[in-house]
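Think of the structure tokens as a kind of shorthand, similar to the way a musician reads notation: each symbol stands for something richer, in this case the local conformation of the backbone. In the example below we present two proteins back to back. Begin with the first one, reading the sequence and then the tokens, and try to describe in your own words what changes along the chain.
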Amino acid sequence: MNVPEMAALARDHWKETCPKAYRQLEKDKLLQAESEAAAKLTLREMEALMKVKMSEQEAWQASRHLFIFLTKKQMEQMYL
């Protein structure tokens, strides 16, 4: 998976999970940058986990909730 794909996943998830924060990010013109940052951070975390012998799939499973698949509460705390 690459940055654009992960960023798209983040945006889709954020729109569904916390539409208010999503709209605020859109309004502030930060949605693209924040979703790309989340994707890059996830990739870095995955790379670190793969260095300790996790598979790519295991690393994705372990890291995706840190930056991409945030909860509504996390989204509200970060962006509202």
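Once you have a description of the first chain, move to the second and do the same.
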Amino acid sequence: MYLLRKRLKNILTQKEDKQLRPDFLVVGMERSGTHWVAALLNNHPDIACFPSLPWRGDTGGNQVGEVHFFNTIAGLYPEYKDKKHTRPFEDFSFKYNKIFADIVPLKDTVSLRDLSERLLRRYSDYCDAQRGDKKIVGESTPAYVFFLDLIDALCPGVKKIASIRDPKDKIVSWHYNLIRKDKKPQGSSITEKFAIDYLNERIIPEYEALLRYNGEVYIVTYEYLHKNTKKAAADMVSFLGFSVGDAVLSHMVSSADFEQQTRRDGGNTARKKGEEDVKSGLRKGIVSDWKNNMDEQLAGKIDKGVAGLRKKVFDKYHVINI
């Protein structure tokens, strides 16, 4: 990692006084409430955060999704080229509103340093556009948890926030997300193989990535967000260097709640927490749904498989556990 930092030294040397963005990142974890975190922060008068639901694609609403910037650019560097969770550089040709499409053909014609600088400045401009008139802006992509050192090398000083969820509920959420995407059949149940595979391939590596990292990450649990939403939101705002009064805090919480985030048909219909919608990325918005989807034996295996890592991460980052 030292060689990566040395190679990238001075990439961010600015020729003008314009501040590079983003100011912070929501770096993970997958299926753990990152959209909720983004929505809470985005409803602060000084803070912009994207993607912020409701995101309804071509049916109206927010058209801005996750950018996957750092896990795509990572593949350009030998340190990350063969690692999991990177995305093909060619994705920039047609994904993410095509904001990097014109830079992709330069890959084999300019130096890695020049290519990185162009990409970083385009990403910064895109984040700045999402900032609007607010003071700071953040972007949320859960896979960033695997690239924390790369983020520091490319964007020194950027603040990081992560949300952690009960691994059993993460598995349930991932299962229904695959059904939503037609990658699993409707009505299928969670098998032990599916649960353990996701635990080993995604959940455990997320915790290991946080343990390897030597920098600061503000971590909040999904369960704490449910139980103490106002306090959790206020603490995140404070971490980003801002204050928040009770009126603004109430606005943040109400504007980001499950009902508001699941509105459809021009805002005329919404769901209450616990109501099912298999076609929505926000499925139920509840805690402990694993009890409706797996038996105690499987739940125990999942807890045992990650308990040690969870304790180490919670201790390292002083996570409030409820």
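Compare your description with these statements about the second chain. The radius of gyration is 20 Å.
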